[in-house]
Amino acid sequence: MIFSLTHTYLQIATVIWLFVWNQTLVSGFSASHTSDIATSRSYDAPPQTNTAAAIKTKWLIVGGGIHGVHISARLLGSGVVSSIEDICIIDGHDELLQSWKRRTRGTGMEYLRSSAGYHLDLNENSLRSFDQKTTTATASEDNSNINIKKRGKNLRGVHKDKQRRSSLFSNDYERPRLDFFNNHCDEVKVQVSMVDSCEMVDYHAKQIVLALGNAEPSIPAWVDESDLQQNGLVTHLLEDNNIDHNTVVGQSDDDSCNNIKIAIIGGGITAAHKALQLARKSSSNRQDDTESKSPAIHLISRHPLREQQFDTHQDWMMDQAASKRSKDGGGYGLPKKQVLYQKCDCLKERRQIIAEERIPGTLTPAVYRGDHGLKYAIQKGEIGWHQAYVVEKERVPNRNGKEDDQMILKLSCGESIQVDRVLLATGFDKILPGGKMIQNLINDNSELNVSDFCGYPIVSEHLRWSDRVFVAGALAELELGPSARNIAGARLAAERIVQAFVRA
Ligand SMILES: Cc1cc2nc3c(=O)[nH]c(=O)nc-3n(C[C@H](O)[C@H](O)[C@H](O)COP(=O)(O)OP(=O)(O)OC[C@H]3O[C@@H](n4cnc5c(N)ncnc54)[C@H](O)[C@@H]3O)c2cc1C
To answer: What's the 100 CA to ligand 1 centre distance in angstroms?
Structure first.
């Protein structure tokens, strides 16, 4: 018994050693955490030769984003993991969900694209009832004076309450407001316990979940390293490592960004959110400035602006619990698309289905045609829209003669525009996430199978990549289908991983 346990730990230690060796130098981890889910910070750092401290944990979750956090919450909530002491999340950031929060804030989005049923808590209605909880709290504060208030005033309170509730969710598809969604995330029994030790730690885990998120932000070939380094002349909106929140364009109250020309590259919702945010700011600043007629914000996209409610159809998002509820209520249960996908044995075909069903570079109707939508901002000349790609760029001095401070973008449509800043909204690289760490794991562990066609992990129904390694997010795409990367995908992944233990 002792031997087999030791053997298990040794096997896993090999895997974790690879994390440490290739990418993740894990900081010290306190054994006396007080938080619900503990997290340690990991760094990209060269391997150290000194002896590392060894920590045993039953569950190691690599990645403290939307997926890692929800899976941890579900493992605990379902009883598969009985104590918070048995689960540990490691991440390269200082806090859980930092990447999500920075990226979404950086885009300037107000509402999520997905609807209220997709969040980090276990109960599907948790976000909706969180709304009730917060609004009821406000209502009861109002009601504390109920006896001395006149009837009219109370009615006004109810009206205000209704207004407030309606602003927490969009009118279409009940999409939550970003700040409200994030408050709910913070409530999902997740608190951070960081230990700022630079000591190297080997984790010995019985089970590992790889929840690494997407690959790196995609940088167009015409952008040089020096463009990215030079005073933020070119910045990727989804690059979260060096985002300083006070200087994110459009977020700053210091108006140094206000009288400048900005080009946004991309034709999806990220580009649209940012363009609208900047255009709002720019037009409010230019009320007195009648001289300048050309827009300060330019949107450059290779394709026409395309409308689509979700990047993946909701048919791909139904989990098995919802399917059961549907059946119990006389419905069809799991949508046909999902059933056929599960039956398909050919990984190449699965990849093709994902490519067809997951459409990047689209806008919700609300962002395009809703109140103050992109379409109208373009018509009013607040945003300059160019259907083109950048053919060439040239760095030039700015108005004050400061060298290399502006960029001329020559576009495929024949136009040239001179701008002070370029913001890339070009999504993520379409390659296997996890970089060298995952590549080395695959090379060194013959049991970690990948598709010959796309190189993504081949996993079991329960998302097992090997006996003790599970995957989530993009890494689980071939099993979960086109919604694997979304919040819905986190819920699908958590359900499958939990089932591996509940059924056994
Ligand atoms: C701007 C934006 C808006 C979006 N809006 C929606 C929406 O409305 N609805 C929806 O369903 N989806 C949305 N998505 C898509 C998706 O839900 C998010 O991208 C989500 O953050 C994915 O969660 P994740 O945990 O897979 O990745 P992330 O949130 O990126 O988390 C991954 C974590 O893993 C860590 N990590 C990676 N490698 C290592 C390593 N080797 N060692 C340690 N840690 C590591 C990273 O530091 C990171 O913290 C949006 C995405 C973006 C970018």
So the answer is: 5
